[in-house]
Amino acid sequence: MEAPGFLFSLISFISMFTVLVFVHEWGHYYVARRNGVKVEVFSIGFGPEIFGWYDKNGTRWKISWVPLGGYVKFFGDAGAASNADNSALGQMTEAEKQQSFHFKSLKQKAAIVAAGPLVNLLLAVAIFVGFGLAYGERYALPVIDQVVQGSAAEEAGFQSGDRIIAFNGKEIEKFSDVVTATMLNMDQPANVTLDRGGEIVETVITPKIAETTDNFGVVHKVPRLGIIRANLIENKQLGPIDALIWGVQNTLRTMDMMLTTVGQVIVGVRPITDMGGPVKIGQVAGQAASLGMIRFIELMALISINLGLVNLFPIPMLDGGHLVMYGIEGIRKKPVPAKAQEFVFLAGMIFLLSLMVVMTYNDLAGLGLFS
Questions:
Q1: Which residue segments constitute the domains of the chain, with CATH numbers given?
Q2: Is the distance from CB of 306 to CB of 284 less than 8 angstroms?
Q3: Among residues 214, 354, 184, 210, which one has the least CA distance to residue 277?
Q4: pLDDT tens, N- to C-terminus, the chain (371 residues)
Q5: How far apart are the C-alpha atoms of 83 and 346, rounded to whole Å?
Q6: % helix / strand / coil in the chain, to the nearest 5?
Q7: Under a CB-based contact definition with an 8 Å cutoff, are residues 281 and 303 in contact?
Q8: Quick one: which of 2, 167, 251, 336 has the fewest CB in 10 Å?
Q9: Alpha carbon 26 to chain centroid, angstroms
């Protein structure tokens, strides 16, 4: 299959990211308004404004040139990062203080900050629930039909007809669970429990790394067990309650997978090149869009989980960093000194910019730009 062109991928990326950023910032906006905070700006993108308008509450809604995020600016903020404008705060009347984010209680401020990431996670749940109601749940059972000769599975003693019931202590219900567990495990030894005609067999398998090329010509290094699944398919219709449970479980499972991947990168089990930056996300968005709207929306759910989860990391400049500051303030019973806040957020900005540069470089290198 021919890879989608640059323009198609760019439009797909901007379309997806615009929706997800709007949802994220709307979460902040909605909870802020519910708590009486005046919102001065609601921006999709950074940098100079392309166009915008004022609503009846005096909020400037605008689209900006750099489509790599967005922000809401509250009354009393000095800028897009929601850092306080201390000179302005000191001159506010009591009525103005009632509308300022910075004079709200810690609980209110924490709720406003946490709302953005949480709405991203809720969007993913809603997408999965919609898929569950529309299509039900269809999955292959984790039963082995064939064991590839010379593979990791053969070396571990797997046999045709075995059913995989646990992988590294995690219960396996579907064959896709085996695939996910293997991808997260990479080439590390894993404890596997098999059901062999009613007999429980414990073994250890070490996946072998293989290079594969996808339909778009991109080469990937992936761990392989060397098994072929049996053609045993379960079809399950889902009602509203079951679909909701399924949507929540899918979201939690995806969060667990992402956190495991990040942890593996931190400890060095997985290379940082396995984590995609904006270029790789744009490439994948174009590929998903070229395969149809269902795949595109499915990817949107995954990226929404990623966006919500990353924003909860305790990194200054991100929502999680603000929540940590509020936690410290709650323990100290007084705000963190302004100079300390400025230093911490500057360090956070440098860290995030450095990480963005590294990941963008890796993305471009993965495309062969520097070959």
A1: 137-236 (2.30.42.10)
A2: no
A3: 354
A4: 567 888 998 999 999 999 999 999 999 999 999 999 999 999 999 889 999 999 999 999 999 998 878 999 998 887 776 777 777 777 888 888 899 998 999 999 999 999 999 999 999 999 999 999 999 988 899 999 999 999 999 999 999 999 999 999 999 999 999 999 998 888 889 999 999 999 999 999 999 988 777 666 667 778 999 999 999 888 889 999 999 999 999 999 999 989 988 888 887 777 777 777 888 888 899 999 999 999 999 999 999 999 999 999 999 889 999 999 999 999 998 888 878 888 888 888 898 888 888 888 887 877 666 66
A5: 11
A6: 50, 20, 25
A7: yes
A8: 2
A9: 18
Quick check: 333 and 150 in contact, CB under 8 A? Answer: no
How far, in Å, CA of 354 to CA of 315, rounded? Answer: 13
SS3 127: helix
Three-state secondary-structure class, residue 315: coil
Q: What angle do CA 98, 100, 103 make, to 5 degrees?
A: 75
Q: Where are the alpha helices (DSSP H) in 35-144?
A: 86-90, 94-97, 106-135
Q: Which are the catalytic amino acids?
A: 25
Phi, psi torsion values for 35, nearest 5 degrees: -100, 15
Token digits of residue 78: 């000095």
Q: Is the dihedral of CA 9, 10, 13, 18 positive or negative?
A: negative
| Distance of alpha carbon 148 from alpha carbon 22, whole angstroms | 48
Pairing of strands 199-205, 190-196: antiparallel
Q: What backbone phi and psi angles, to 5 degrees, belong to 65? A: -75, -30
Bridge partners of 202? 193
- What angle do helix axes 175-185 and 240-267 make, rounded to 10 degrees? 20
Q: Where are the alpha helices (DSSP H) in 166-239?
A: 175-185
DSSP 332-362: HTSPPPHHHHHHHHHHHHHHHHHHHHHHHHH
Cα 72 from Cα 80, distance rounded (Å): 7
| Residue 154: both structure tokens together | 């053969």
Question: Can you say whether the dihedral through the CA atoms of 271, 272, 275, 281 is positive or negative?
Answer: negative
Please tell me whether residue 73 adopts helix, strand or coil conformation. strand
